[in-house]
Amino acid sequence: MTAHQTAVAAGADLKWLTNSAALLRRPLRYEAGQAKWWGLVWVLADALGLALTNAATIATRVLHESTSATAARGAHIASGLASIVVDLPRYESIFLGNLSRALVLETPRRRGRTGASKGGVEAAREYGIDIGLLKSALERSPAERLATLEANAEFSRGMRGAAR
């Protein structure tokens, strides 16, 4: 994955990703698993307004320690007054949609010609060109080919003179 694809998969801005990686002193790897983690950190930090370090801690806890298939408890206050519950299946569904978009639509175009070429001889044969004449010319030595070329040029000059 590229940096841009990682940002699209995470649903975050590329500049936010690079700055957050620097603030957390965490290497930014362009992988799907890392994009999933960064996406959850982005949601917790941006939507809930959590501090970046807290959002990173909660995202790690939710993704690595979740045992429930329906929801994962990310953090809770010791007194039990408040808690953060992440709907993990819903987040994974959103992430997989973003990942699909990143891999399909945001893939950089390859340089050069598109499609696999069959080769010049095969394409010429399919087009209807007589390959036998080409092969017989290539079987001759360079001196023989040059003599044939000079004979053809002499013939062309003679025809032009006759036409005048």
Structure description:
This protein is mainly α and 164 residues long. 64% of the residues lie in helices and 5% in strands. It contains 8 helices and 2 strands, in the order ααααββαααα. The chain has helices at residues 3-10, 14-24, 32-47, 52-65, 88-104, 120-127, 131-139, 142-163, and strands at 72-76, 83-86. It starts with a helix and ends with a helix. 21% of the residues are buried. The mean pLDDT is 82.
What keyword list fits this structure?
164 residues; mainly alpha; two-stranded antiparallel ribbon; 8 helices; 2 strands; 64% helix
Helix/strand structural class:
mainly alpha
Note the overall shape.
rod-shaped
DSSP summary, beta strand count: 2
Instruction: Note the run of SSEs as H and E.
Output: HHHHEEHHHH
Approximate strand percentage? 5-15%
- What's the number of helices? 8
Q: Average pLDDT across residues?
A: 82
Question: Quick recap of the structure?
Answer:
The protein is mainly α and 164 residues long. It is 64% helix and 5% strand.
SSE topology:
Layout: H1 3-10, H2 14-24, H3 32-47, H4 52-65, E1 72-76, E2 83-86, H5 88-104, H6 120-127, H7 131-139, H8 142-163
Antiparallel strand pairs: 1-2
